[in-house]
Amino acid sequence: MASDYESYRIEMLRRFEQQHNDAEQAIANHRQVQARAREAIARLGSPPPEPNLCPDCWYEHSKRSPLKPADSKDGMIDVFRCSACGFSEERRA
Ligand SMILES: [Zn+2]
Predict the structure, then answer these.
(1) Ligand 1: distance of its center to the CA of 91 in Å?
(2) What is the DSSP string of 36-92?
(3) What are phi and psi of 75, to 5 degrees?
(4) Which one of 22, 61, 67, 77 is separated from 50 by 20 to 30 angstroms, measured CA to CA?
(5) Separation of 55 CA from ligand 1 center, angstroms?
(6) Which pLDDT does position 74 carry in this prediction?
(7) What is the DSSP string of 18-38?
(8) Measured distance CA(53)–CA(22) in Å, rounded
(9) pTM of the model as a whole
């Protein structure tokens, strides 16, 4: 039978192992966020590589989605919409 001292040691070991694993996971998550931000910062340093790309899709996800003309209720304004994310932009006709 394990002594109280030994049980305490094993319980404490498990607790620190859990803290260690939780910290590893948190670090991995932060690294992912950091890598994603680094890539977005690089893209945001210049205009999109093609005209008429959805800015949300390009800058946030590095995805090339064209903005396409959508129905506009106002004849003075043209509306362009991204079919991938729904972003829309109004431009003077
Ligand atoms: Zn989009």
Answers:
(1) 16
(2) HHHHHHHHHTS--SSTTB-HIIIIIH----BEEEE--SSTTEEEEEETTT--EEEEE
(3) -65, -15
(4) 77
(5) 7
(6) 76
(7) HHHHHHHHHHHHHHHHHHHHH
(8) 40
(9) 0.69
pLDDT digits (tens, 9 = 90+) for 22-70: 999 999 999 999 999 999 999 999 999 999 999 999 999 999 999 999 9
51 and 21 in contact (C-beta within 8 Å)? no
Q: How far is the CA of 67 from the centre of ligand 1 (A)?
A: 8
Output the CA 50–ligand 1 centroid distance in Å: 14
**Per-residue model confidence as pLDDT tens digits over 70-84:** 987 778 889 999 999
Residues 6+ apart with CB under 8 A from 69: 78, 79, 80
Position 66: which residue type? P
